[in-house]
Batch of 4 targets.
Target 1
Amino acid sequence: MRIFDPHIHMTSRTTDDYEAMYAAGVRALVEPSFWLGQPRTSPASFFDYFDALLGWEPFRAAQHGIAHHCALALNPKEANDLRCTPVLDALPRYLVKDSVVAVGEIGYDSMTPAEDTALAAQLQLAADHGLPALVHTPHRDKLAGLHRTLDVLRESALPADRVLLDHLNETTVKQAADSGCWLGFSIYPDTKMDEDRMVAVLKTYGTERILVNSAADWGRSDPLKTRRVGDAMLAAGFGDADVDQVLWRNPVAFYGLSGRLRLDACQPGALHEGNSILRGGE
Ligand SMILES: [Zn+2]
């Protein structure tokens, strides 16, 4: 089973996770930018983080045979913090980098006016840079959040078929599917979607335009949830081609819209700016 995790925050994960992901079949991933767990206090903090997602983390992933790409943005939560919003002005110089395959994750957290502004501005940046957008839908008030998201999308310059709506569930999938956007589902150990509910969604909506991710981050999460969905699909009677479409071909098609996907980028033993992850004597 070959797996592309289209949304996972490796910066908060360990080398054990990379090893287990490779063993489970993960060969590529996209790491969207998000918060640090604690508030950032200046745009400079974003710049170091963006540089890590562009350089250090792809290098670390390559040591484990996994191709790493990223999506960059001001995240929805910090769109409300005036110490952070100036990062919007600096984003254009990052969005031109080779391994940036989307603007993301953007969208709503608490659905504030500041989040409206950041979402609209970043959809425009995606359109200007020929990039698709990864749009997070809120974890509270999901349906209202989706409606507001779709309203802003319709007024944007970015067509629906270049947008991935993420963190969907049974309450939002119908309207998200009708919008013409790509559909993302985050599978978690004990909240939101699980693998059996995901299989039920796939039985109802089919395998087109649907992406499944582990969204693994600082909280309790499982970076092998993609594999577990593949196994649950096979157990439920889906074929290998269906699994390959959901876990590989759909994410490749979506992020391929950027024209920047490189799926051969694995060079174990290489150096990153003169540094390896090996310790003395290894
Ligand atoms: Zn995320």
Target 2
Amino acid sequence: MESDYLQEVSSIKTSLVLTLFSLLITSPTLGAKRDFKSIANEQPNASYNPFHIRVKVGAGLPELQVAGMDIQRTIHASKNIKKFNGRKRIKFNCQNFARNNRNNDLLKTPYLLASLNSSTGLISFNDHKYHGEIHVVSNPKTEGCDVVNELPLDTYISSLLSREMNSAWPIEALKAQAVAARSYAVHKILSKQVSRGYGHEAYYDLENSEKHQVSGNFFDATAKTAKASLLTKGEVLVATDGKVVPTFFHASCGGHTLRPEQVWENPISGYNNVICDSCAEKSAWDGDIDTERLQKFIAWMQKKNFLPKDIIVKNFTFLPSSEKSNNVRLYLNDKPYIVKKSHFRRYFGRKIISSNNFKSTFNKKTKILTVHGKGLGHGVGMCQVGAKRMADKKVTYKEILAHYFPGLKLVKLY
Ligand SMILES: [Zn+2]
């Protein structure tokens, strides 16, 4: 076992790190493959995919291991490239690295430390096998390392389909999901949304989590998901101005979908409320929320500035809410306020509030709020259960997408 390769970086003089660091930010190693500006001028080519996506697959790890056959390892600070013949396991000790560089201001932002790939195209990180390349990036907040998997977008889509949908579902549903997931990913790549959020180059485009999209690893891709990805190669949804928009999807809407601004803060063009008959009667849920938890919820709403901070709450009453409304009306000390349903879900979590599609009643005596809901997930964009039911009835993926995203257009990007 090779160990502690990051100590190699630690020993490099600060001046060298300084020079190389500026080189890294002006011409990042990852940039070469990611020349998106030229896409518009490229001729369509069956095998050509200009998009590589960088997925964060590990965060703040004190140590990690990368293994594979014929690994090539690049230490960026020293430009040290080394090839290992045969099977190799390399251990990174990130705590040592952080400890030795604690007083180095440069490492207060993420730093691309090492990249590893194998001639087989497959590489393992902590015993999970991935396609493409593995990057090790310093994580200044935790004094550990983040791990980023860079791979062709369509390979990513193929492994994601098994996780975000069921690979046994009809091919037209998987194709619709492939286009939606690709649009979401391409939007993340082009908008540099993650980096912008951090205020610096984040070295990844999205996270492998429910916050973004859940992708799998090598073993999650099946022949069917690969086919769904290939048959929709390069296809994304765009708004009327031609811009790729983030296309959201969820497990089941419970009868109708929601627009982004009904759940989050900002509107996104191209979204409508869509009736979804296929899952209207399915996936009902309900629950009670007692006084104590409601009080804590109100305090959280105040802390987040969703309700005025200066009110000292002496009493509260919720008015009954219907399924059609996006809000629940509330009286605090006999003054009326409005609470977004999505804030209930954000605070109480998916297990208690499974979707944003619910109605509620409030018992004034017991001060208990009772909720009856339908569906699973945020409810914005494509309903996966609805998409499956449509595909079962021989509806094509283009028709499914047109149904859930009536304001968006399908285009082939590459
Ligand atoms: Zn639905």
Target 3
Amino acid sequence: MRWPLRVSHVIELVIFDNDGVLVDSERLANTILAGLLTEAGLPYTFEEAVRDFMGGSMASMRQKTEAELGRPLPADLEDRYHQQLFDGFAHLQPIKGVEAVLDHLDARGITYCLASSGTHQRIRTALTAVGFLDRFEGRIFSAEDVAHGKPAPDLFLHAAGSMGVKPAGCLVIEDSPLGVAAAVAAGMKVFGYAGMTDPAKLSDANTVFDDMAALADLIDRA
Ligand SMILES: [Mg+2]
């Protein structure tokens, strides 16, 4: 009898989600989104916005809520959302402990990049605010770059392809169920960060962790 060969892949590329993994933006973003949807006639709490939209694109948010509402959302909703978000980004902080993870990857010579559902403008504004832009320059991938955002695998496959690494050599760090689903669909290893997310919702990840200080060790043992 022949057993399937189990191949263990060395991690060549770590793909970071941005919101909620690198930058602490989810609390702000979902508070703003819940407020705008409520104003538009679709009452949403912060918790419901986290549950339904965290990790997804604004395009998929619009599609879902318009189906629920039975009419279009205000045309300027995205503009107002981004304006309020960018105003708030002046006080944005990195996720506690994540800079040490980047330093660790640099020291080990493991390449990393960023793949986010946000627009390029949003990503760059956030990275600039926390001082990470130089670390990711030239290695920033947005849902704007592909036809289908998370949970489709397109964005992660696009990031890996652009970085010249096969999916089997990639490790994704994600805090949203949509992002974990996208990584699994892309055939990549994925660690779920349950900083703000219910860990049960990240259970499709290879590992779930809630303390960023543990990530460097988890990567070394992956
Ligand atoms: Mg996220």
Target 4
Amino acid sequence: MKPDLVVCGLGPAGRALAHRAVVRGLTVTVVDPAPERRWTATYAAWADELPDWLTPEVVAATVPRPMAWGTRAHRVDRPYVVLDNARLRIALRFPDAEVVADRAVDVAPGRVRLASGVTIACGRAVDARGLTRSPARAEQTAYGVIVDASRCAGLDPLFMDWRRDNGAPSDAPPSFLYAVPLDDERMLLEETCLAGRPALTGAELRTRLRHRLRARGVELTGAEPVEHVRFPVQGGRPGSRRFGAAGGFLHPATGYNVGAALASADAVAAGQDVWPAGARAVHHLRNAGLRALLALPPEDIPLFFDTFFTLSPAAQRAYLSGRADLGGTIAAMRSLFQALPGPLRRRVAAATLGIPVRSRGRWGSAMMVP
Ligand SMILES: Cc1cc2nc3c(=O)[nH]c(=O)nc-3n(C[C@H](O)[C@H](O)[C@H](O)COP(=O)(O)OP(=O)(O)OC[C@H]3O[C@@H](n4cnc5c(N)ncnc54)[C@H](O)[C@@H]3O)c2cc1C
């Protein structure tokens, strides 16, 4: 019998969609080359992004008011959560779905063609296969270590810390420190390149992390478990047949996607339009935000985030999470723009509008912003 829905890809987005569809009583088939593959990434989100249907046990750790640093300290008045992958996968179970271990090679309306040659006919097919890497796409990279919390005395949880104590030259593409608890006993300490084309390498980020942690009294032994991060932040296309990173849910200027996918899974399962005109406009604005970030000279980045984190909590939330909140996104971008220092404002305006900007050295390798 034809399933109501085929979900291609079992990352956080695909699993969330399959789960909500089964809960709704749909017949579901899921396709992934490795359906049982464990998630090794540390996933985090803002607490208020998580949908009500998700059990609180999926939260491994909560940071009630994370710290953010540009050149100075800011408290972010918004709880941030680190997810427990094993529990999240259990919460996103889809007991009655048919699981197919294969690669979807063509996801079309009403049918999915698999690498094995099989074609599955269905009521609806959704592509949640994530994003493939390409030199044309900006990426986020990071190098992280997992350290006993007892060794991190004095290190507050950090949403981002752009201070320049990581040993990088002042004209080099910048990176920030991300520091979150994984549970009561362990912290993840990660040097992160927010976006670059090309992004900083893992080796460079490792060197910076070691330098920075040494400066803060945390000496690494080399025996710490490591997290490598590399994923495209561009390339998702909004539309009713795609979901998660593949479907434009990944915020290109931050790299976050899990919270947005969890929040929208129910509506997508119900076949609702999750890309009204306002959401599509927000998608374009967020891409403009990424262009601005890629265009800024390294020394401007901490100032940019100083300004961002002085915005009201509502404005910060609208920009970071208001996927369909066009009014809130515009208001946040306007407030940010007005609060930026003059020269930085001009560079951000030009980059946002896609006007070529000559700068002294940027995150990306080319000198002109397309
Ligand atoms: C180390 C790391 C840490 C991250 N941390 C965060 C975070 O804290 N918060 C956050 O929001 N985001 C984070 N991200 C970004 C993250 O990639 C995405 O948010 C999330 O994984 C995207 O979910 P997704 O389900 O859309 O796609 P993916 O997770 O990329 O899943 C795609 C799935 O599709 C499957 N697939 C691929 N090709 C095919 C095919 N041909 N047919 C069928 N199936 C296929 C894959 O096997 C995979 O299971 C992180 C990424 C990394 C790498």
